[in-house]
Write a structure and sequence with these properties.
The chain has 270 residues and is an alpha+beta fold. It has helices spanning 4-24, 71-82, 86-100, 106-109, 124-130, 143-156, 247-269; strands at 32-35, 38-41, 101-103, 111-112, 115-116, 139-141, 161-166, 169-175, 197-200, 222-226. The chain is globular and about 50 Å long.
């Protein structure tokens, strides 16, 4: 018979294993590995490169939406509760992001294993957790970091949103045809709606909502809808069950530990 104290320790271990795996779902980018010189998060998304099936555009948005929504999405929900008017809400969200973010080059602000990263993308929650409205600390990032942050906040606030992949730039579009002050209203393919997407440019503190920069007025860029829009065609990465180790491995470890406990109990009786 296994002594009650040893049995209690085993049960406690199993509880910790389950709690670890459940808690991990809220932190989808808690670990990074390097492969062929690029850093991949535990979702398999390349944080150093934007394109391809593992690139961060637009895949990084999946880490902070739907079942993975957390702080950035909650910020959007706060704006949804505070602003009844969609146009006022949209303007306030852009102003918020412009106020609490600061543009910075990756090579000056991101270091992995002692090496400055020439290119790096943060997801929306990583940006949101960096800023602090109480102490006045701003989140530092470049165009794609602000685009992902804006994207998740706007979706949380009830807007349809799309990440813009332009030449040497990333931004956001939101569906707001009733907004009166945009310089361009865009029509996305397969949307089944007329022109009504407006540009969200958070990289400058004075850029107004709906202002498409002159470099992108002629098109030549791609927009990837995010959230629950039905016309999304890009495959999304599969969420991991835990940030660094899965349930099967942990249960196997627990089984080994339990075997050791049994062996110790038998030896104690002899």
């Amino acid at each position: 018979m296994v002594p009650p104290r040893l049995l209690f320790l085993f049960v406690l271990l199993c509880v910790l294993v389950v709690a670890h795996c459940q808690a991990a779902k809220g932190f989808p980018a808690s670990s990074f590995t390097i492969e062929d010189g690029d850093w991949y998060d535990n979702w398999g998304i390349d944080r150093n490169y934007y394109g391809g099936s593992h690139g961060y555009l637009p895949n990084l948005a999946t880490e902070t939406l739907n079942e993975n929504k957390e702080l950035a999405y909650n910020i959007g929900e706060r704006f949804l509760a505070d602003y009844q008017s969609e146009t006022d809400r949209a303007v306030a969200i852009l102003k918020y992001v412009q106020t609490w973010t600061e543009y910075g080059y990756d090579s000056d602000n991101v270091v992995r294993d002692g090496i400055a990263q020439e290119e790096w993308a943060w997801n929306a929650d990583e940006m949101a957790h960096t800023l602090d409205e109480t102490t006045g600390v701003r989140a530092i990032g470049d165009c794609e970091d602000m685009a992902f942050l804006c994207g998740t906040v706007y979706v949380g606030a009830g807007f349809d949103a799309a990440i813009v992949d332009a030449t040497d730039h990333a931004a956001l579009l939101i569906w707001l045809p009733e907004f009166a002050n945009a310089n361009s209203y865009w029509d996305l393919p397969n949307d089944n709606r007329d022109a009504g997407w407006i540009w969200v440019e958070a990289t400058g503190n004075s850029n107004p909502l709906g202002w498409t920069p002159p470099d992108y007025q002629d098109g030549g860029w791609t927009a990837y809808p995010i959230g629950n829009l039905e016309f999304v065609t890009e495959p999304a990465p599969t969420p991991p069950t835990s940030p660094s180790i899965n349930m099967e491995v942990l249960l196997a470890i627990a089984g080994v530990i339990f075997s050791i406990i049994l062996a110790l109990a038998k030896a104690r009786r002899r």
